Amino acid sequence: MSRFLSSAVNRIDAKGRVSVPAHFRSVVQQRGYSELYAIRQLDIPALDVGGLDLLDRYEARMNQEDPFLQTADDMSFFVHGDGAFLKLDQDGRITVTDFIREHTGITADVAFVGRGNFFQIWEPSKLAAYGAQARARLSRLRQGMKAGGETGEQPE
Question: What is the rounded CA–CA span in Å between residue 98 and residue 101?
């Protein structure tokens, strides 16, 4: 099955549109997405973007919660009220709306990052910083695994 892989940075045009990378457009077409669902990440300045299967994934998790508890209400607000649909034009561009700009800090360029079943939209310098942090976390985890065996436990 097709996956969103790799990354690219594209410039926003004078009309406020940005081209979605060709590989990502190909995946969108292969999966038959007629529209893209975007949701703001909770703890990082990025948007997750995918088809209705991304929305379905969040709703499946919400359905595991007691509908009378605050958690279910908060999840619904996040998934339904803090998400948006993005339209791809015939040339494979999306409009960089205030919804996107306010959360990500995007001004002139947009970074697209494949995440397997969905992709993310970032401001390029924030993505670079996040990528460095992620590599550092994984490096520390790897070093811990080397020192403590496969479980990652540190020797005493």
Answer: 5
| pLDDT of 103 | 96
Segment 72-97 shows an average pLDDT of 94
Backbone angles phi and psi of 40, in degrees to 5:
-70, 135
Q: What is the C-alpha R_g of the chain?
A: 18
Alpha carbon 45 to chain centroid distance? 10
Q: Mean of the pLDDT values across residues 31-51?
A: 95
Domains defined along the chain, listed by start: 7-123 (3.40.1550.20)
Which pairing describes strands 93-95 and 83-86: parallel, antiparallel, or unpaired? unpaired
- Given this model, what pLDDT does residue 150 score? 59
User: Are 126 and 120 contacting, i.e. CB atoms less than 8 angstroms apart?
Assistant: no
Largest CA distance in the chain: 61
Which residue, 90, 92, 89, 94, is CA-closest to 104? 94
**How many DSSP H helices and E strands does the chain contain?**
5, 8
Q: How many CB atoms lie within 10 A of CB 77?
A: 10
Question: Average pLDDT, whole number, for the chain?
Answer: 93
pLDDT at 153: 54
3-state secondary structure of 58: helix
